[in-house]
Amino acid sequence: MSTEEIIRKALLTVLPAVEPEGYDGEEAEYLTFSCDERPALFGDDTAQERVADVLVSWYAPVGTNPKTRRRAICKALEEAGCTSPRVTNASDEEGLHQSFECEREVED
Questions:
Q1: What is the DSSP-derived secondary structure letter of residue 21?
Q2: Do residues 101 and 51 touch, judged by C-beta distance below 8 A?
Q3: Which of 79, 73, 62 is nearest to 101 (CA)?
Q4: Is 37 helix (H, G, I), strand (E, B) or coil?
Q5: Do 12 and 18 touch, CB atoms closer than 8 A?
Q6: Domains of the chain, start order
Q7: For every one of its 108 residues, what pLDDT tens digit does the chain have, with 9 covering 90 and above?
Q8: Is the pTM of this model over 0.70?
Q9: What are phi and psi of 31, to 5 degrees?
Q10: Pairwise CA distance, residues 66 & 14, whole Å
Q11: Concatenated DSSP letters of 52-81
Q12: Which of 16, 36, 82, 91 would suit a FRET pair with 108, their CA atoms being 20 to 30 Å apart?
């Protein structure tokens, strides 16, 4: 299973509206994500592993309490083999937006 498939499957345990790169659906609360791979753990000038930098964005209406959802997203990512996410609040007057940044070793 690809990193994208693993992340999407994990996030679907939190919300039913999950899409890579962007979302154009009707739900007021949804998740988007991206996964960018990079080489890691070099030996003899060769990458021994590949790591995926995972970025998840959670969007919700103003007034939503983010505490429970934030914990559920972090737990889902960790259970999918990601490092503990760094969470950034990017909310504004138009809505809640929480950003989750983590890494995951790419499996061949």
A1: S
A2: no
A3: 73
A4: strand
A5: yes
A6: 3-105 (3.30.2000.30)
A7: 999 999 999 999 999 999 999 999 999 999 999 999 988 877 888 867 889 999 999 999 999 999 999 999 999 999 999 999 999 999 999 999 999 999 999 976
A8: yes
A9: -125, 140
A10: 13
A11: EEEEEEEEE-TT--HHHHHHHHHHHHHHTT
A12: 16
> Tokens 């994500």 map to which residue?
33
Sheet holding 18-20, edge to edge: 18-20, 30-43, 46-60, 96-105, 86-89
What's the CA gap between 54 and 47, in Å, rounded? 19
Taking a C-beta distance cutoff of 8 angstroms, is the pair 31, 87 a contact?
Answer: no
Q: Which helix (H) or strand (E) holds 45?
A: none
